[in-house]
Structure formats: structure tokens, C-alpha cells
Amino acid sequence: MASLASIGPATVPQRTDSVATPAARTRLQSIDALRGLVMVLMLLDHVRETWFVYYAVTDPVDARTILPAVGFARFIVSFCAPIFVALTGLGVYLFSVQHTVRETTRYLLTRGSLLIAFELLYLGPLYWGIVPQPTFWLQVIWCIGICMILLSGLMRLPRPALIALGLILVCCHNLLDPMRLQPDDSLFPLWAILHQRDTIALPFGFLAKTTYPILPWIGVISLGFGIGPWFRSDVAPEVRQRRLLWLGTGMIVAFLLLRFANVYGDKPWFVVDGDPVRTVLSFVSMTKYPASLLFLLPTLGGGALMLVLFERIDTSRLTAALAVFGGAPMFFYLFHLTILRIFYHSAVAIWGPNHGTSYGFDNYGGVILWYIALLVPLYLPTAWFSRLKRRRRDIAWLKYF
Is the separation of the CB atoms in 378 and 328 below 8 Å? Predict the structure, then answer.
């Protein structure tokens, strides 16, 4: 069996028991806490998609017409996918510290395939009955699954090469934006999966919507893996935190400079005459599908700064509560979407559509109230499953949730 050292110490360190030290456990709680915050924020967006689905939200949002509350909420939840994908890469590195190359590869291939299966066979059909035609929505779970499978090969690169690849994909993929293929082009399905958000016609009248083109996300997961050595137990907390502070601050400053320049990285922002709120909204509204450079800079930069915060307040109740959500992310994701779909279809069955072909609230306030009301009921089963994962490490399949 190949040893970890065969990849090179800069890429995947040799197995060491020091990862189990208290300091390492603290770091893992800070990572789980940030992942948990992502889950909590994500819930807001999914509640909106359930009860406010009739209210169209463009990508990026149109600051001239969007309801400001919805526009700013979208900016807040924009942090979810970039942080989660980056933490996935970081989590794979931490997994690789305690496992061989073969074991890490098997884990990535297995979990990646499982995520793709969940997206296609479970999550996609949950939306049928909400959308008019059966559609497989290739969303973030699909995207992470594909990225994990690709990372099983990319992690063998020397660490500088992996980081360089990640930077190129994140920073330069917008140069490919003018390249548009048509459905009758032979490479259209591949290009739609890689970079062009589009619809792929499937047999028997089904459709596949490439909501999350994967090209920039390959870069994000690679960069998450690339900073993994910062989280080794032999790296002093103040050194790691200083690096994260410089990284996060640098990304946010780079975002501000590029956004004010208005020349590259996303669609231009604009001034809305007589409405400073909508002008600010235009400034922070970036393209998510596919994730633009200017979408990724502030979200990943903010994630780096929040990692520092959660590590510094690791003893707080807030960190511990968020770590519960972050300790069982796949369980929470599947569970809360299932509950929301049950509620939605029940409402349609009882009251029927009240906004065209959809059922929904008349204002965004109802979304906020439902979001707040669901936090505790969703926390309790997630806490139970998180404890089960920690208690029953002998059950192999639990680690995939």
C-alpha cells in the first residue's frame, strides 16, 4: 500500500497521532462551527425557495427591481457555497493526514459518487411538482461530488502546483465567459457542466439544469486542500490565525479594488439615481452561476476571517451550537430539504396554488418567520445524529453524513 510520504511532505503529510491533540480538536470545532454557520444561513435561502418561489431572483440580482430584503439576503447566503466547498477541501486534507493515499482516494471516490447519487436520485425529484417539467437540478451537492472525485487525482500534485491550479481556475475562468455553445454543438453538454449554466435535454422528456458549473469550484476545493498544512498541530495557533487574517483581508481588499475598477471579474455594477440602498445592492450583487471571481473573493475572504473568529471563541456556546450543525452537514441538508418539501406539497394539497402555479407567502416577512421557527426543531434531530456519529465510529457509513 502506498505511503503518505510517497506524495511528498508538502502535499500530504505523514500519518501522525498529533492530530488527536486537544489543540487539533479545538481547530476542528472551529471548522465545524463555520460549516454550521453555513448550514444555518443556507436554510434561509431554502425557505425562500420554498415559500417565495414565485418571486423571480435573477443572477446576479437586478438592483433596480429586486426587493431589497431579498437582494441583501441573497448576498448573505452567497457565503454558503464557497465556504462549504473550501472547507470540503480542507476536510479532505485533514482526513488524508490520518490515512494513506489509497484510503483517501477511496474515500473521495465513494463520497463523491454518493453525493452525485443523492443529487440525481433524491434531491432532484424533491423539486418535481414545484417546477413544471421533471428536471434534474445539478446543484451544489452534485458539484461537490464531482469536485471530490477530481480531487482524488489532483491531490497527488505537488502542493505549489495544486495551489497554482486553484488560483488560475478561480482568477481566470471569467476569461472564458464569451465562449457560448449551442445545444446542437457536440461539446455543449460538457461545456454546460464545466462553465456555461444551461439546460441539457435528456431522453424521455427530462431535463438537466447545470446550476453549478464546476470549473471555478474545482479551483476552490483545490485551494481549500492547499491551505491544509496551516491546520497541522505543529503550527502555532497565532501563526495560522495571522495567515488567515492576511489571506482574508487580502481577498476582500482585492475584491474592493476590482469591483470599484468595474473592468473584470463580473458584470459591472451601477449607480441607481436617488437610491443609495439599491446602489449598494448593485455593488454587492455578483454572479453565482458560474461563481465569478468577484463572487468568490469576498465570500472566501470572509470565510477565512470567520475561521479566525471561531477559533478565538471556541469555548462559547454559540460555537458549540453551530458545530452541531457542522458536525452532520449532509444529514441536515437532506433532512431540512425533505421537511420543507413536505410542508410545501401539503400546503398545495390543502389550499392549492395562490401565485400562478405555485403556493407562497405574499411577503418576505413570512419567509423570515418560518426561518426563525425552524431553527430549533431542525437543531434537535441534527444534534442527535451528530452525537450518534461521534459515539458510533464503528459504523462506517455514518462518516459520509
Answer: no
Overall size of the chain counted in residues? 401
**8 Cβ neighbours under 8 A, 6+ residues apart:** 158, 159
Query: Are the C-beta atoms of residues 248 and 34 closer than 8 Å to each other?
Result: no
Mean pLDDT (whole number) for 11-25: 41
Spatial separation of the C-alpha atoms in residues 209 and 383, rounded to whole Å: 33
pTM of structure? 0.91
Q: 363-397, pLDDT tens digit by residue?
A: 999 999 999 999 999 999 999 998 888 888 777 77
Residue with more model confidence, 205 or 342: 342
In sign, the C-alpha dihedral spanning 280, 82, 120, 213 is positive
Q: What are the grid coordinates assigned to 70, written together? A: 431579498
Which of the 8 DSSP states describes residue 298? Answer: H
Contacts of 312-319 with CB under 8 Å at 24 or more apart are 312/241, 314/26, 314/29, 314/30, 314/33, 318/33, 319/29, 319/30, 319/33
Residue 12 has pLDDT above 90, yes or no: no
The conformation of residue 292, written as its DSSP 8-state character, comes to P
d(CA 134, CA 138): 13
Beta-sheet strand order (sheet of 199-201) = 135-137, 207-209, 199-201
Give me the chain's average pLDDT, please. 89
pLDDT over 90 at 131, yes or no: no
Other Cβ atoms closer than 10 A to 262? 14
Which helix H or strand E contains 201, and what residues bound it? strand 199-201
What does the alpha-carbon distance between residue 314 and residue 320 come to, in Å, rounded to a whole number? 7
